[in-house]
């Protein structure tokens, strides 16, 4: 025993929490800029420029959280890192291709001749779509226990579509905050349609998780656990109600409440993530490997934790600074 208790217990929990928070922040932040790319085909050239301007100062910083989450998985849970990436090799490869294509298109569309710009716009959309679909597929396969069967692949394809729709939805909510005029109104329309994808994804994951694992079924429906879990679906339903009602009346003339859908969606993603964390704990590889079994030696984890406590505030401070400096409406896109 140490001053902080048993390090073989609290260090894996601390790193699992850090990794989980990093993934959640990534899903919210990079989710909206992936969503903006997914919405590209539904806008005209002038609107595309304004959409790019709305995410330009943030998108590369948003992806830092994904790098952090994967890095924490590698150094803190190397056995789980190997098992998960081995099972998800194909969708991870597609995601990386999508991220590369997206980043190249983002930069090249600014320098391309006008005749070539539509090609880079399509590449930006394709990269965003590939990334969203692959991440949704990975989520579904993870819930299914990382097993490749006809049924699990079918479910993973469903979650791929639902997560992509959710990214498009939060992207539309972001555009409601950062734009005005016709584009803001169009973004509200996109959000109203995309809400159904969010609902479908939540229902699919909620129905599948307890059916896949008797252990999760027991954690959800046994007494008194069911009472501890009950606030999550109740608050989720309330947030969906808030989203439905707010989107019916937005954008408002004074443009004061357009932040509500984005804030409510962020809270909804947080509740969904909390539900997944509660369901799968203590497993990092579903039903196969716990965080305690997969963790590195306590001595290694402690040294890594010291480094993480320096790196995390720097990443967070940089993100906060970027969102503070570039707050307000997106202005006309210029490259001079």
Short description:
The protein contains 14 helices and two strands. By secondary structure, it is mainly α. It has one domain.
Structure description:
The radius of gyration is 21 Å and the shape is globular. The protein contains 14 helices and 2 strands; from the N terminus they run ααααααααααααββαα. The model has no long low-confidence stretch (mean pLDDT 88). The protein has one domain (9-325). Strands 1-2 form a two-stranded antiparallel sheet. A hairpin with a 3-residue loop joins strand 1 and strand 2. The protein has helices spanning 7-38, 45-55, 59-76, 78-87, 89-108, 117-143, 150-178, 181-212, 214-221, 225-229, 231-248, 259-280, 291-294, 298-325, and strands at residues 283-285, 289-290. It is 79% helix and 1% strand. Helix 1 (7-38) packs antiparallel against helix 3, helix 8 packs across helix 9 and helix 8 packs antiparallel against helix 11 (231-248). By secondary structure, the chain is mainly alpha-helical.
